[in-house]
Amino acid sequence: MTDARVRQRIDRWLDGDLPVDDEAALEQDLHDAPETLTLLADRALLHGLLRDLTGRPVVVPAAVERRRKVVRSVAWSALGLVVCGVLGTLLVLPTADAGSADVVQKALDRSRDDSARRYSVRVEPAFPRLWAAQSRPLPPVSTLWVRDTRFVQSTEIDGRTLAWGRDARGAVWFTVSPGTVAVFGADETPDPLRDACDLRTLDQATLLETLLADFDLRRVSGNRFTNTIVARPRDGASRIGRVWIVIERESLRVRSLVVERRHRGRKTATVHFTLEETAPRDDAIYEWPGHVAPDAEILDRSAGRAARRSLLTEFLRLLKQEPAES
């Protein structure tokens, strides 16, 4: 008897929402168990028959499932073609369809305007139960203003305001209190700080360009107002996993994105970006002086490494919601 988990994988894959890691497991099941191949063909035939002419899923009555054997006997002559088609699709993964790529391209063109965008950002750890076991609260929602490669982000943690950003020169700065700011030039930004920034910020134009070049795109849902497109990486070594994009039909503005972040092929976090506002903003918001006191201590290249390293450790600890050392 086929394992219920295998059946679930097949159904989720046919519906287009099977996680990337489970796709490899399903492929292995197909190689190891001949009955899995039969079940896949069976479900694919039923799945295809239960779609209307517009390609939208139809609600399946329970009686239809009971008549599954009848469906199989009628469609058995097409089994070979279906298996070849389904297996071929599984092994290469869904290819980009012209409609989805066209929508993303238009959204990319639209995103190149000169306005700043404000997002709410929520980071969902890959293993939330592990965080809970360590008595660590989930990362708080932060506010992100972004324009081209510049950004400024802020959040409240333990009664303190954390702010960090990247200015027009590529320098990255951060502060955990109004009295001190650390500044790293573009050529000296430490990898942990760069990774923390990359995880939580959004260079929308660059991301959309990457999706068009290196991802397979497929429209998974839509209505009168929006299209939802899922992007899957062709390269398993990509630091970005699947991406869900909601694009407004009329304005072609990207309303929200959900981005899976990966490291060495494993998902590390899922980041949710929700557009709150698009408006002109003074470029000064991306510079550190507007986020600290006038007499704040400035820890830049001239201050040496030790002082900045100590502040960076505290900044990352707060951002990751790690307990302080006793």
CATH topology of the largest domain: outer membrane lipoprotein receptor (LolB), chain A
Our estimate of the beta-strand percent is 25-35%
Number of strands: 12
In whole angstroms, how far apart are the ends?
A: 54 Å
Q: In DSSP terms, counting alpha (H) and pi (I) runs of 4 or more, how many helices?
A: 11
Q: Give the overall shape, derived from the CA principal axes.
A: globular
Order of helices and strands: HHHHHHHEHEEEEEHHEEEEEEH
Radius of gyration, Cα only, in angstroms? 24 Å
Average residue-wise pLDDT: 77
Examine the secondary-structure arrangement and name the CATH architecture of the largest domain: Clam
CATH superfamily of the largest domain: Lipoprotein localisation LolA/LolB/LppX
If strands are numbered along the chain, what order do they take across the biggest sheet? 7-8-9-10-11-1-2-3-4-5-6-12
